[in-house]
Hints:
Layout: H1 3-61, H2 67-92, H3 99-123
Helix pairs in contact: 1-2, 1-3
Amino acid sequence: MTVSEAMLKVLRIGLLGALAAAVLAGAIGYGVDGGAGLAGGLLGIAVPVGFLGVTAVVGLVTARLAPQQLGAAVLGSWLVKIILLVIVLWVLQGQDFSRWMFFGAFLVGTFGFLGLEASVLFRSRLAYVEIRAEQGGDSGGGGR
Length: 144
């Protein structure tokens, strides 16, 4: 399995899981606290899934680059997402929704998506190193 295939699998399963989690969080939120609970549950799932989905998309788009470039792109996207998270939470600060439902759904969404990514990547059997064929007669043995 390639990095691209692994990231596509994360996105596919992640979107299906996010839909199921959103329905469940919305239903629980509505049952507990009416419309405010519904909004809190849906926002609590949407924020982490959206932000963590960006990591999978960045990994998918940069999969063919050198590992250093892929790592830099992912780290750069994390920095941008941290800044965006602060902005999103600041905007949501004055809105009317259940904070407890948001917090609970946010934790479930975050750990669920991270667990999915870890599970798919651990099972994907991606190579850690590239084996390059020797060119010419020099084996690069250091003069032995």
